[in-house]
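Input chain follows. Return C-alpha cells only.
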Amino acid sequence: MTDTADVVVVGGGVNGVSIAYALAARGVGNVVLCEQAALANGASGRSSALVRMHYTNEWDARMAFASFPIFRHWPEIMGGPPVFTHTGFVNVVAPQYADALGKNVAMLRGIGVNTVALTPGELRDLQPFAHVDDIGAAAWEPDSGYADPATTVDGFARRAAELGARILQWTPVRKILTTESRAVAVETSAGRIDAGAVVVAAGAWAPRICREIGVELPARPKGIDTVQVTRPPSLTEPHVIFIDNVLGTYFRPESGIRTIVGVPCQEWDLDPDGPMVLAPDAPGVGAQILTHRIPAMEGATLARGYRAVDCYSRDRHAILGRVNGVEGLYLATAFSGSGFKIAPAVGTCMAELIVDGRAKTVDIDAFSIRRFAEGKSPEGPYPYALRRDHTDR
C-alpha cells in the first residue's frame, strides 16, 4: 500500500529533524522523516556541536546568529532539558590575518553578534595558561558555548512528533522517484511514500542519493577525526572553546574534566556505510595540537577517539535550496563539518522556502547549488588560511 506525505525529509541528523520540526510548526499537516538507522546515527551524533557565530562571511554568520537563541533558551522555546553549555569562545589567527580578523569582527558586530577583537596579551589575560606567541589576534565571543548533540536531535524530533510529524527510524530511503521534471515519491524499505516535496538532508549519503536521480552534488564524503582527553589536575577549570586557525583545528571542554580536540583528517570519499576507524596517528596529532596551545596539557591522558563522516561541498559551505529542473526537490546538505550550530535556522529557512516560496529569516540564496555553475561562493572578502582538514588530497 502506498503512503502519502506533503513533505518527506530524508535523513535524521540535526538538520533533518530541525526541518521536520519547522515544517510541522508552520502547519504542514503531513510531514514524514525517514532515517535509515537511529536518529543522529551519522555526523550529528559525533558532532562537537560548537555553538558560536564567528565566520568570515555574512551568510553563515547570520545563520548562526539566528540559531543561537534556540540553543541558549532551549527549555523555554523547545521544552525539555537544556542542551547548551556556556563556556565562551575564541577564534585565533596568525599575525598575517590579524587585520582580516578585525574586519570580520566589525562585520559580525554589524549583524548583532556580541564579539570583540583581542590582542595576544588580552587573550593571555583571558586564558593565562595559553601559549600566544604565534597568535596575531583573537575574536572573543563571551556568550558562546556548545550543545549536547543527542539531546538536541531528540528534542527537535520530539517537538516535530508532538506537532504531528512522523519520525520513521530504521526506514532507509532506497530511491527518490521522479518524473521528467519533478520529485514525486520516495521508495523506502517499508514501501513507497508519495510526496509533494522531498528534502535531502542525508549528510554523507546525499551525493549517492542524488546521483541516482541524475543530480550531481559538487560534494564528497570526508572523515572527521576527534579525540577526547582527560585534563590534568592543573587544568580542572574548563578553558574556553578555541578555533585555532594557526594550528588548523579546534578544541573545547567536555563534561567538566575532559577536552575534545578535532584532528585534521584527509580521508576523502569514504563509504558512509563502512566502518569508521580513527586514524592511528590521531591521538598523537591531537596531543601535539593541545600541548602547543596549552602546554599544561602535557599531563592530559587519552580518554577515547572516534571518526565520523560528513559531506563537504567544493567551497566548504552548505548547499541549501531548490534543485533547478526537478520541481519539489530540495537540498539541505554538504555542511562541511559546520552544520550543527546553524541547524535551527536551516530548519526555519527551509520551511519558509517550501511553504512561502522563499526563506525570510535569513536569505539562503547564497547557498544554492546553482552557485557552482555561476562561479559564486558565500565566502567573504577576508578569509583566513584554509584549514588542513578542509584541503583536498
